[in-house]
Amino acid sequence: MSNERMADMLPFDFQPDHWGLAAIQVKPEGHILFTDTSKNKDIPFEKAYLHMDRTHYQAGENIWFKAYLTDAVSQKLSVNSNNLYVELISPDLKIIDRKTLRMETGLGNGDF
Length: 112
Description:
The structure is a single chain. This protein is mostly beta strands and 112 residues long. It has two domains: 43 residues, no CATH class; 69 residues, Sandwich (Immunoglobulin-like). Helices cover 4% and strands 37% of the residues. The two termini are 24 Å apart.
């Protein structure tokens, strides 16, 4: 369970609230309870985008990417966060590798 991501535990048709935030509580049994989101309205919300150097890769090739972190409301590059955590996930949903990217004025790059 420690390698599962929060998104894997959400219902397939989950839609976040207006701000894109949902305050949740995960019970030990794996059940998710949605709680009041009114406290989250002052939290800056960001969206992350990865731009890959191509669409298909052969085994052993490096996957190069550029990361964009934008403000969810204005869609401008965000300066609120300094790090972006990126995971490479296999088709059977196993985490192959993790990277922490240093973001400068909403931009960063890396490879797997």
